[in-house]
Specification:
The complex is a heterodimer of chains A (162) and B (640).
Chain A lengths: L3 E7 L10 H16 L4 E4 L3 H12 L9 E3 L10 E4 L9 E4 L13 E6 L3 H16 L3 E7 L5 H8 L3
Parallel strand pairs in A: 1-6, 1-7, 2-4, 2-5, 3-4, 5-6
Chain B lengths: L2 H6 L4 H5 L7 H16 L2 E6 L5 H11 L4 E5 L2 H19 L5 E3 L9 H10 L5 H16 L18 H4 L18 H11 L2 E5 H8 L15 E4 L5 H9 L1 E4 H17 L5 H20 L6 E3 H6 L1 H24 L4 H21 L6 E7 L4 E7 L3 H11 L2 E6 L9 H7 L5 E5 L5 H4 E4 L12 H16 L3 E5 L2 H14 L4 E3 L5 H10 L4 E5 L15 E4 L10 H12 L4 H21 L7 E5 L3 H4 L3 H7 L4 E3 L2 H14 L1
Parallel strand pairs in B: 1-10, 1-11, 2-4, 2-5, 3-4, 5-10, 12-17, 12-18, 13-15, 13-16, 14-15, 16-17
Antiparallel strand pairs in B: 6-9, 7-8, 8-9
Helix pairs in contact in B: 3-4, 4-5, 10-11, 12-13, 12-16, 13-15, 15-16, 20-21, 20-27, 23-24
The chains are: A alpha/beta (162), B alpha/beta (640).
Protein name (chain A): DNA polymerase III subunit chi
Pfam family, one (chain A): DNA_pol3_chi
Organism (chain A): Thalassotalea profundi
Chain lengths: 162, 640
Amino acid sequence: MNTHVMFYILEQENTSADPLALVKLHVCIQAAHFYRQNQRVFIYTQDQEQAHAIDELLWSFEPDSFVPHNLIGEGPKNGAAVEISWQAPVNRRPVLINLTSTVPHFAHQFSQIVDFVPSDEQLKQLARERFKGYRQLGFKVDNQKIGQTINAEKVIDDAINN
Amino acid sequence: MTPTEHAFSQSGILAKVLTGYSPRQAQIDMALEVERVIDEKSSLIVEAGTGTGKTFAYLIPSLLSEKKVIVSTGTKNLQEQLFYKDIPLIRKALATNAQIALLKGRANYLCIYRLDLYARERGQLDAQMLTDFVNIRTWANGTSNGDIGELVNVAEDSSIFPFVTSTIDNCLAKECPNIEDCYLIKARKKAIEADVVVVNHHLFFADMALKDTGFGELIPKADVVIFDEAHQIPDIASEYFGESFSTRLILDLCSDVLQQYHTELTDVKQLSRAAEKLQRTAQEFRLLFSRDPERGNWREKIKQSRFAQLFSILKVDIDFLYQVLKLCISRNEAIDNCFERAVNILAKYDLMANVEVNGISFWYETTRRHVVLHITPLTVADKFSEYIKQSNAGWVFTSATLAVNEGFNHFSEQLGLESAATLLLESPFDYLHQSQLIVPRYLPDANHVSRAQSLADLAIPLINASQGSCFILFTSYRMLNQVAEILAEKTDFPLLVQGQMSKRLLLDEFIGNDQAVLLATASFWEGVDVRGDKLTCVIIDKLPFASPDDPMLQARSEDIRRQGKDPFSEIQLPQAVIALKQGVGRLIRDVTDQGVLVICDDRLVNRPYGEVFLKSLPDMRRSRNITQATEFLSALHQNS
């Protein structure tokens, strides 16, 4: 299978205490995008806490950007359109959004992978490693900058209702 | 400036009577639309979110129009609030002499004839009935309008009332010796003469469907008709455009016939034979159905030969009684009345037997002793829109909960109101800061064995944080009782459980006790009014979708499917959305109200239709973290 990886480079400075805050937001925006294309998505997180953070963020999106989703361990039998987990996937989906610091061992199961390069130096280094890792698996890897085009603060204000 | 615009302005009459009045755009928008619709004799559908002030927004232009106005609302309580509180205030403000009348259904008025009859003939009374009876007699001497709602010392559900009020069946109408003093006729007269008449939906549609033909139409013709709580009308309307046939009607008739035989017509032996035979068959008919009360599809049942057989015997027996009664015509008034009832029962029988008719739902429901067969039209849109067209009046349909997904189609289609103007006015409340909507994570399935335990575990921290003041609502009695049992062991807050006492008593107890936790079924919610801190937390076990077993829903779904549409999104989803919106409206009633709604159904998060719910509900702060809710509630109760 020809897996295509898209790295989004986040140039905007992350002003939150959580170095991954901006990444999490973009994970959700991407999930919303794929849901509206009718593509089922698997969001892979580092741990349960991170999965809950994504869950919370998606649930608080504006109704117009509603994304039906579930955590692993709840929801319908075959999962909702978007499934969030810190464990390997149990059903097949075309799209993986990776929030972990390494290349998932099951990455080859997906035809499309979304990954991120955060602005934090240390995290950026880990992203470079993943970039290489995907290439070594023979995936086609592209990248795209987001930052200047999006006013992240505004996106957060618009997307989250608190 | 129109008169309505002026009334709502900073220097208008409202500002003069209401201290601290400041004009609100949403209210003015609605009032102006109502004014226009009255003027043009057209129709308007308006959702006015809680706190918009919709009551004044329709009352002021209506009273200013100086036309004949009917206001119909959902319950007797709301009728009284309009009649005794809101309208007098507006009347004073506008300094008008407009006459107002309150008109309720027949069962709300004392029947002098039956009261006297009962006083003479009553048999053994238990202590409660006797007390109630004495109280009613005392009150009857002084009342001016005979409205039993005035009785403060007799319980609403007292079994005495059927004996001192009349029904369309036992009313003697023109033959009544007390007709001169009849409270129902007096109320009706007042309504004809009044400028503004306050009625309720049941009365309105009963009258419209010409059910109550005792005195002809009860509700006078009007130039303006306003429905408040309009979200209830489609269901009520279809109920009254249908018919029902019950074994109770048959048994009541039989017992009246037997009474006549034993007292006045002792010579007609056939009367007792016919009535006793019919009694037995009607009782046997009930026994064909399962012992426990249920609802189901009558078309399916009558296909079975044992139902078909006994149902046709029923016909033979009704016929026999009818023939015997026919021979007794003119012997006395009571037996004439029995004859008319037999004619009526025969006509209804034929409706129930003719199950091939399309566009109608045939269904039955059983109580412990009786069977009721119903036919309900699948749609009232044709009839209702024709009625409106003929009325030459302005029509307003309003409620705090009418829109689904920001649209009104599901409502207007049911009533044939496609050409009505629509208006959607948001509530002025700050739901984002006043309220939270929580859908907890990892709840076991609705059918999982640990479900009740999980719900109880979840509820306890919420009850503690909310210090009682909590509703827990269920879609099944089984789950209700299971959770109640677990909670009883684990919490010291007083539990009020539906089934322990009447609904009214439960509510009184809840309002009287700051710390109470009320466990009830979801339907309990509609019409409940609890203000302020009394209710800060509502937990719902499942999204309020109607049960797929409901025969009326099945029939409607079948009809929608035939039109090539999806019954779930056309019927079940809008219904559930409105029910949930109603619930939020009960939780947050005021700018200062705060509260948490916990929905233990993750379908709201993981199904695409979650979007429809979110778009239709007020913009509450959403979370999946139960701690968010407990912190919010703790803060709330520390501040107060």
